[in-house]
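Quick look at the format.
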Amino acid sequence: MKKILIAMLMLLGSSSVWAQKFALVDMDYILKNIPAYERASEQLNQVSKKWQAEIDVLTTEAQTQYKNYQSEAVFLSEEQKTKREEAIVAKEKEAAELKKKYFGPEGELFKKRESLMAPIQEEIYNAVKDICDQKGYSLVLDRASDAGIIFASPKIDISNEVLTKLGYN
């Protein structure tokens, strides 16, 4: 009796697994086909380069001050050496703080990326969710970010459907 019950549970359990529908999306492909994403990426790159240039200027100034200090150190009094060293350290600290402000975990670049990308990602998520609701998918995997997928049939890739739902071809 127990064996029959276990066999029935296994049969029911395995049949429910087979009844689930799965799909794949390729987020890289989808994002490359959305012009707003490309514009946002370009805007982030430009801002990032501008901010990095500001940091590079400060770093170069600190390096120049240090080289000048090294070449003139023998002619400077202890008081002058201390002032120069403090100026160099202050410049390096200013560059480090600016780098943290722009590129840190909660920095300006993070906030800008969040403000530009979140609406696009939300729109994609909603399109995927609508397709899942219409077609009864239980799970959608991103083939671009999951290195564990060795092969997947193109039949279950819904990337083009997502793009069509978003109004892109």
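Next, a different chain entirely:
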Amino acid sequence: MSIKQSIIVGVERLGLPLPDGAVPRLAAYLALLERWNRAYNLTAVRDPDAMVVRHLLDSLSILPWIEGPRVLDVGSGAGLPGIPLAIARPEATFCLLDSNGKRTRFLNQAVAELQLKNVEVVRSRVEDYQPKILFNSVASRAFATLAELLANAGRLCAPDGRLLAMKGVFPDDELARLPPAYVLVGVYPLYVPNLEAERCLVHLAPASRD
């Protein structure tokens, strides 16, 4: 099965509608990531079929919870989950934030090659980032603990926005240490086709300022 076919089958199993041209763009993104990976070691996953599951489908599994018009991917790394989500949601604007020059060079190249008009790449430490407008959704895939995410990126979320943290097993200990300025909206199990590992999404929101 080709990479495009694997993406099509996986997306169908996720039950997600994608815009026209999304599958070729997702495949092109993986091909670019695989090529850069040989020199820059952007991700530990090397096998293209594994990349479809562990990168593309894993990232797209949170699509139903993404709200625009402004979405921030904190610690974007190789563009995960931001680039797959941006391809799937062209009407929203995505900011990919990372402090590493090697990774942001790749992100800028990916945005240019894939002609992603709705994506901005920002090289900055999250604690130093000062956007002019706050974000409706702040997503993270591999950003330390929930407490650290909120301490560093919570201020970037609009008062009526949502913070979405992708996790493996249910993070009981982390949830027990949430700061009072944020409330837990829910923890949702994520279905990722062909992925054996447990995955979940933690949905947090700023507490009411009333």
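The longest strand covers residues 157-167.

See the schema section for token definitions.
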